[in-house]
Amino acid sequence: MTLLTETPTTTFTAPDVAPSPAEARGQRRDATRLLVARPDGTTHAAFHDLADHLHAGDLVVVNNSATVAGQVDARSTRHGAVVVHAAAPLDDGTWVVEVRTAPDAARAVLDAQAGDRLTLPLDGDGATLDLIAAYPPDGSSPTGYGNRLWRARVTGDLHRTMARHGRPISYGYLDRTYPLDAYQTIFGTRPGSAEMPSAARPFTTGLVTRLVSRGVGVAPVTLHTGVSSQEAGEAPQPERFEVTDATARAVNAVRAGGAGSWPSVRRSPAPWSPPSRPTGGWWRRPAGPHAS
Known about the structure:
six-stranded antiparallel barrel; 4 helices; globular
């Protein structure tokens, strides 16, 4: 089995990584740090202070995508026990999947091949995946050999299999496994994200109440996130999105009124300016101040 191993060219002392959700550490979700960036500099704050940095008439755009149970044990015809991360369904009915090592999905498996069959879960009481082709191009691994992501043909009901046997996608830095609820945001009403759309996780009902009571609007978009385990040299994958007519009209109203400066409308799934008309499809542009 060929695995991905990288040697970093830059080293630094990493800050402490939270091994568990804030609630499991006795903290509130909105107690996380907040960096406020303005043309005249940056300010360090806490997320529960967000309302203090916005003004009446501003608009906060949030993601209403909900996290699904995207990780499941499987058996490969060539590798035996593996873990599958179901990243996204494509328009032709196939799925983008990642094959990782069992039992904890610690590393990507790079020597999967077209024609490999993955039976979900290990006892065979679910769907099967037949790997068709690398996604998006062949040789997409950052090492230049092998493929990390695959397009797979599904036999059976993958949604049902994941709902019955799946668990949230997680990685080795967590101190233990956590239920799917720990990966949801208060806005998550449309299941579809392979991993948590984490930009909205620090929001609480109390914080939203403070925003609205101060005249700050809140409008949803949908961006179903894929797997976040990109390695060095890999670009972000396309992700399905939708902007409704109501949200587009809210954005246009804020812009027309002169409120909603760039910092106040960028609390979206990625730092991007929301479209001014209802739209949807696949978001292929990288996030940044010039994305639109």
